[in-house]
Write a sequence for this structure.
């Protein structure tokens, strides 16, 4: 009766694969407990699963005992957190996504070169807190939806950077507004919005106009997942919702719906998508058409602290 358009790429990105693998490898190698500062990735299922296996998630380093091992999450940490860990002599594994680290380096480089930096992003997100920590006196965080609220810098040299998981179109609109305010605004040498965010947004954009309903699997605090809901609506879906699990979906959403678009955020295990597809099949949406925009092949090697040590024997 109904059909499902299943977007690809969806689900795990290279940074999430690596971060989860880092916690698993630390558990294998050192045994529990392995402390993790913040959620390793923003997915309630992943966090619950790793907790069951011996990971202990904490908000701040003061909750980590002195002799413990602590993993920094994929979203990155400010230099102050790293110094604190160093000062306490904690053993650390840095699972920050290399694409987030790239933004940190760029922020530090621009600040050293005397730039003021407008960081487009959500101030309460861990990634933005971490990047801001690279040069708190020189970075001004502005919400992508409200670029006019940027605090005037007055500096001759102004550049911009962004959170990696923003909506591409909204961010470019924000940059255009900023340029009106700061005509000398310098673009960063490369995009900060990562390949995974861009690909997932493009894939759902392709499908959304044909859908009366789009369901995005992802947790409420996952920035890239939230953006997929917004992008689907902008692209023409009649309705779009974020669901952590199939159990959160509401049958009333299916009223007069013929085509459902399905995708998932970069931190979402595929089994949660399968669970949602089962839920839909049970309600007559059993014809699933995969729509693949592009194949992703990028992988990142484990954090260096966990790479196999050379056998000197
Ligand atoms: O999309 P954000 O930055 O909130 O993170 P999430 O953990 O959901 O996925 C990518 C990463 C890291
Ligand atoms: Fe890295 Fe992008 Fe994945 Fe974030 S969403 S972990 S920046 S690849």
């Amino acid at each position: 009766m109904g059909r499902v358009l299943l977007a690809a790429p969806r689900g795990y990105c290279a940074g999430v694969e690596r971060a989860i693998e880092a916690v698993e490898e630390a558990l294998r190698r050192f045994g529990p407990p392995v402390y993790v500062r913040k959620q390793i990735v923003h997915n309630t299922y992943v966090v619950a699963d790793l907790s069951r296996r011996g990971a202990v998630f904490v908000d701040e380093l003061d909750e980590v005992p002195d002799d413990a091992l602590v993993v920094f999450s994929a979203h990155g940490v400010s230099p102050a957190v790293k110094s604190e860990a160093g000062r306490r002599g904690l053993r650390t594994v840095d699972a920050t996504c290399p694409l987030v680290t790239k933004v940190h380096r760029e922020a530090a480089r621009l600040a050293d070169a005397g730039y003021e930096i407008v960081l487009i992003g959500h101030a309460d997100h861990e990634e933005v807190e971490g990047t801001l920590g690279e040069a708190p006196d020189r970075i001004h965080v502005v919400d992508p939806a409200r670029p006019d609220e940027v605090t005037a810098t007055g500096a001759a040299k102004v550049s911009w950077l962004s959170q990696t998981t923003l909506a591409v179109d909204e961010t470019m609109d924000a940059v255009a507004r900023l340029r009106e305010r700061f005509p000398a605004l310098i673009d960063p040498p490369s995009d900060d919005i990562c390949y995974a965010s861009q690909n997932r947004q493009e894939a759902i954009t392709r499908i959304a106009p044909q859908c009366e309903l789009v369901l995005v699997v992802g947790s409420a605090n996952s920035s890239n997942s939230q953006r997929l809901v917004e992008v689907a609506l902008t692209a023409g879906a009649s309705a779009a919702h974020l669901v952590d699990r199939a159990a959160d979906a509401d049958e009333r959403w299916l009223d007069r719906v013929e085509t459902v678009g399905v995708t998932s955020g970069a931190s979402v295990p595929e089994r949660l998508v399968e669970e949602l597809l089962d839920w839909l099949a049970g309600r007559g949406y059993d014809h699933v058409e995969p729509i693949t925009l592009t194949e992703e092949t990028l992988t990142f090697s484990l954090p260096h602290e966990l790479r196999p040590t050379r056998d000197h024997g």
